[in-house]
Structures are given as structure tokens and as C-alpha cells.
Amino acid sequence: MSQRLLAEFVGTFTLIFIGAGSIIAVGQAGGAGAGLVTVAIAYGLATAAMVSATGHVSGGHINPAVTIGAWVTQKISSKDAIGYIVAQVAGGVAAAGVIRAAIPEAIWRSSNLGTPLVSPSISNGQAILIEAVLTFFLVWVVFGTAVDPEGAFGKIAGLAIGFVVIMGVMMGWPFSGAAMNPARSIGPALVGGFFDGWWVYWIGPIAGGVLAASLYDSGILRPHLATPVTEPAHGVGAHGEEGDHVVPEGHEHE
To answer: Which of 39, 164, 172, 236 lies at 20 to 30 Å from 134 by C-alpha?
Structure first.
């Protein structure tokens, strides 16, 4: 468990350090269109790299919305889920703290320390909807590539998940900040003191993540697993818990 929590901490630290840091860097460099692409690619690459690096240890959640989706579908225990979320939030806070220490205040404050904020052009309710839909896509792909033992792309799950983050930021960043991750928001918010609409980034991502996880689990994963398979699942159950599979006859004790 200590190894898994360390993996979740480092993974989330990287995600927030690169994601929030890229927003500050874009603000410093200027350029709206190029800035959107920069943030999207930075956030997506950080996700892809850390999911790939930590997937075999903890499952590479690095996102409370993913962990809660796995918990709701009984792919992770309550105790482990709480530990994961604490490690993720701690990683986000630590990353924001390092950014604050490394970058002059005049620079990071102008970008709110990279804290996602709701655009004045939309309401908090609309921001919640955007975050929920984007996180639905993210958790759906997580389940389809990293959780489902029948998923064809299990070995490149990190890449697929990173692509979803990139497309989510490209659509949502100008409106809601496209956090898709409560830890992505709460870390910079706590360190920088930017709490406007902080609850948007818990309600939206968790609602979207739970819906995606539940729908995939009940509509696709369980029907698949209802049919016996003769080869082991490629990986652990839902990011950290051993998956159920039928052991080939004669190999029960291997």
C-alpha cells in the first residue's frame, strides 16, 4: 500500500505541477490560441506519462474522480480509496507549493497559480455540466483501456487517457478550466487562496466519473466477465485490485 500511495502522490504531483505550471507559463508568454494548445498538450502528456509509469503499481488513478468511480463499482476497497484520495490531494497541494516557491508571486498570481476558474461567460451550473461531461469521457476511456480485461489497448492505456485529457482541455479550458480532476483544482486553490467556485470541480468531475464507471461496469464490463475466459486479465482489476479471471484447467496452483 505504501508503494501505491507513493505512486499516486508522485503521479498527481506531476500532473498538477505541469498542468498548473503550463497555465502560468502561457500567461507569462502571452498568446491565447497557442496557449490553449500548450496547456492541452502539457496536461495530456503529463497524464499519459504518469498513468503509464504508475499503472502497474497503483493503477495510475492520479484523480479522485477515477478512484471514486472505481470504488462505486467495487474495484477498490473503501480503505484504499480513502488513502488514494488523500495521496492525490497531498500531491496536488505539494505541486502547487513548489510552483509558488519557484515562480515570482507577480507571475503566478496573475494566472491564479494555475487554479481552474469558471469563466464569467457561463454559470457555475454550466461549468459543472462541462466538467461532468469531460470527466465522463475520461473515466469511460480509463475503464475501457485500463480496467476492462478485454480491452484491446491495455498496454497503451496511458496514451489513450492522455489523448482524452488533451481533447477535454481544448474544449473546456476557456469555459471551466477543464480540470476533470478535483485534485487538479484543490491543490492550487489551497496554496494560492483562490476558492471561487471550488466546489464546481468536485461535483462535476465526481458526478461524471461515477456515471461513466457505473455505466461501463454494468453495461459492458459485467456482461463480458459473465462469459468465462481462459487467459488471465492483462493487469489488475480496477487500478490496484486483482481482477477476477478463470484459471485454465490444470494450472490452479501455479
So the answer is: 236
The per-residue pLDDT for range 191-242, each reduced to its tens digit, is: 999 999 999 999 999 999 999 999 999 988 887 766 665 544 444 444 444 4
pLDDT of 75 above 60: yes
Cell triple for residue 201?
470541480
Contact 110, 121 (CB under 8 A): no
Beta carbons of 196 and 187 less than 8 angstroms apart:
no
Tell the CATH topology of 2-225. Answer: Glycerol uptake facilitator protein (1.20.1080)
For the chain, give the longest Cα–Cα distance.
67
Q: What is the pTM of this model?
A: 0.81
Report which of 249, 51, 57 is spatially closest to residue 156, judged by C-alpha positions. Answer: 51
* Spatial contact of 162 and 45, defined as CB atoms under 8 Å apart: yes
Query: To 10 degrees, what angle do helices 124-142 and 64-72 make?
Result: 70
All three cell numbers of 229, joined, read 475466459
Query: Contact, 146 vs 154, CB < 8 A?
Result: yes
Residue boundaries of the structural domains of the chain: 2-225
Distance CA(188)–CA(185), nearest Å, equals 6
